[in-house]
Amino acid sequence: MPATLTGRVAFYAILVINHLAPLNTACSNCPFQWKEFSGHCYWMVTEKMSFQAAENHCQDRSSKLGMQSHLMSVTSPEESAFLRNYTADVLGEGHQALWIGLNDRAQPGIFVWTDGSSTPYCDFNPGEPNGSNSEDCVVLWNVDHWNDIDCARNFEFVCKMPGRFHN
Ligand SMILES: [Ca+2]
Ligand SMILES: [Ca+2]
Question: At the top level of its lineage, which domain of life is listed (predicted)?
Answer without folding.
Answer: Eukaryota
